[in-house]
């Protein structure tokens, strides 16, 4: 029977373990993610205007973003496999972060679509290269009982960059418009060059603060054998993630839905402004909710909390469909929808990687996280194409209704997965 002294020592050990999650590597990875997002999200908000002053049609933006997303998705699986094969991740992550400012510089020099496409692809290739490996480093820098909190903190920092980046891009563009010459492209180029600065700082921050707990190399590791040898429970898990993801439409469509719904009562300009503010609120909700959701997962398990998050995602799509069905054009209604969206994305982004670590062995963690990223990327590309096409060809009611059905099916499938939770 444990003595009181032993109980006291065990409690102290647990307390020390809980405190140790906010270590140098976790903080460094969080700061790096915030700076990286600040770099490319500043571009995201001004890129449509830059293409317009270059005289490029709107279709070019869709092609550029689609190709870039596809490159990022497939890069994730390959980069995860390479990290498991060679046993180290930090060099690849640094290379991935270095590609982001390089891509920004290419876009800043663009006179037409080829360099815009090249710059966006280079940036998104870097994003795909670093994402799974950075998550693996963070996971291995903390203990399983504190995994949710560490990943929640990281996602909060990541989202902070996504919130500040667009706001900074708009503010810098207004300033650059006064500081630049008569060429209408000059203000955009100036902002693009300035966005390189946080990208370079991201590389330096990761280099200085993050420690990579390298694993033993496995040069004989085969790509297809490794993918095929992932546990059956993990394959069921990514299957559920994929089904949910095919319904998980881009929230750019959610902004459009709010704009369309609010336009009759407000006018197009005011409706677009309100929809934009609602999206900022969604991002703030995600940033604020990520850490509490991670802490909740540490207490109750990542998989059950993720199931609740997925259910909120299905509810978001269902409420959007109902808003069109009953012509609900109140700001409060759309505020509720965007609030639910922020909460479910916080759970999704924080806990999908955490569940992966519970289902995949440590020496295959890079491959597992890369596979998760690829499945998510492909599913979301299909989703946005599906929902957008149905909206255009049939109706937004059918589009968001189908999204809700797919997300519900994914939630039910996820609830049937059994986790090998290691605590």
Automatic annotation (TrEMBL):
It comes from the Bacteria. InterPro entries: MFS (IPR011701), MFS_dom (IPR020846), MFS_trans_sf (IPR036259). The chain crosses the membrane at residues 45-71, 92-116, 159-178, 190-210, 253-280, 301-325, 331-347, 397-417. Pfam families: MFS_1. One of its GO terms (molecular function) is transmembrane transporter activity. Residues 25-422 form the Major facilitator superfamily (MFS) profile domain. Keywords: Membrane, Transmembrane, Transmembrane helix. This is Major facilitator superfamily MFS_1.
């Amino acid at each position: 029977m444990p003595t009181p002294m032993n109980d006291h020592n065990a409690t102290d050990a647990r307390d020390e373990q809980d405190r140790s999650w906010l270590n140098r590597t976790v903080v460094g990875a969080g700061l790096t993610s915030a700076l990286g997002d600040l770099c490319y999200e500043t571009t995201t908000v001004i890129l449509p205007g830059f293409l317009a002053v270059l005289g490029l049609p709107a279709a070019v933006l869709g092609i550029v973003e689609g190709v870039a997303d596809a490159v990022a998705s497939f890069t994730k699986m390959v980069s995860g496999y390479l990290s498991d094969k060679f046993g180290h991740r930090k060099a690849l992550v640094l290379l991935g972060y270095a590609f982001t400012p390089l891509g920004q510089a290419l876009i800043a020099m663009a006179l037409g679509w080829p360099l815009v496409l090249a710059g966006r692809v280079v940036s998104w290739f870097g994003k795909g290269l670093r994402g799974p490996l950075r998550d693996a480093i963070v996971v291995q820098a903390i203990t399983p009982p504190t995994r949710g909190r560490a990943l929640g903190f990281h996602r909060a920092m990541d989202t902070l960059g996504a919130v500040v980046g667009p706001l900074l891009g708009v503010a810098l563009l207004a300033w650059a418009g006064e500081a630049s010459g008569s060429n209408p492209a000059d203000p955009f180029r100036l902002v693009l060059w300035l966005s390189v600065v946080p990208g370079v700082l991201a590389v330096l921050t990761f280099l200085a603060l993050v420690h990579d707990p390298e694993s033993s190399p496995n040069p004989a590791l085969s790509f297809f054998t490794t993918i095929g040898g992932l546990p059956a429970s993990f394959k069921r898990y990514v299957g559920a993630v994929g089904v949910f993801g095919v319904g998980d439409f881009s929230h750019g469509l959610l902004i459009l839905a709010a704009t369309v719904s609010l336009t009759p009562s407000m006018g197009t300009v005011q409706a677009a402004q309100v929809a934009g503010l609602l999206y900022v609120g969604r991002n703030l909700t995600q940033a604020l909710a990520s850490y509490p959701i991670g802490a909740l997962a540490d207490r109750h398990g990542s998989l059950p909390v993720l199931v609740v998050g997925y259910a909120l995602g299905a509810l978001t799509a269902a409420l959007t469909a109902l808003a069109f069905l009953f012509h609900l054009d109140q700001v409060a209604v759309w505020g509720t929808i965007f609030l639910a969206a922020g909460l479910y994305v916080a759970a999704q982004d924080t806990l999908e990687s955490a569940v992966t670590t519970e289902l995949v062995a440590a020496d295959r963690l890079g491959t597992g996280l890369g596979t998760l990223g690829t499945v998510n990327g492909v599913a979301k590309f299909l989703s946005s194409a599906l929902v957008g096409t149905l909206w255009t060809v049939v109706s937004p009611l059918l589009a968001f209704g189908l999204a809700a059905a797919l997300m519900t099916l994914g939630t039910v499938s996820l609830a049937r997965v059994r986790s090998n939770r290691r605590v």
